[in-house]
Structure formats: structure tokens, C-alpha cells
Design brief:
Length: about 80
């Protein structure tokens, strides 16, 4: 994320994650993605470093899930 500003809008985050603004808003409201509210209208901003941390956590969670739930193709025999 070279040349990324320090703070990103929810729309910026949605574009980076290739998801919707509503999904990013839900991540923020659930506390999964730390963010701040700024200004009189309370606009949300996500610090770029927080987004990177979130992405790393998701990679770690995915790796754990894959390890705990190995993929087995239908009809494949078990290798002992």
C-alpha cells in the first residue's frame, strides 16, 4: 500500500478489500477493524496501519481454519 494516506475512508477500505462499504462499516461497528470518528458529522476513518493489522489477523485466522479443516475432495481416498 505504497503512497497510502495515513487515514482511509470506509469507501477506500472497501476498495482495497474488494468488498462493500456496508461490509466495512459492519467490521468497524463490530470492533473487528479499529477506526475513529472525526468531524461534526462523525465520518469514520481507518488508519492504514490498522487495516494492515486486520489483514494480517485474517491471514492468521484463515491459516488456522485451513489447518483445522483440511480440504478433502469428494471420492478421494485417505492417505495413511
Amino acid at each position: 500500500m505504497a503512497d497510502t494516506p495515513r487515514f482511509l475512508t470506509l469507501a477506500d477500505v472497501a476498495e482495497i478489500l474488494n468488498t462493500s462499504v456496508a461490509q466495512v462499516y459492519a467490521l468497524v461497528r463490530r470492533g473487528e477493524l479499529p477506526a475513529i470518528k472525526i468531524g461534526g458529522r462523525g465520518q469514520w476513518r481507518v488508519e492504514a496501519s490498522q487495516l494492515e493489522g486486520y489483514i494480517e489477523r485474517m491471514y492468521d485466522q484463515t491459516a488456522t481454519f485451513v489447518k483445522e479443516h483440511p480440504f478433502v475432495e469428494d471420492g478421494a481416498e485417505s492417505i495413511d
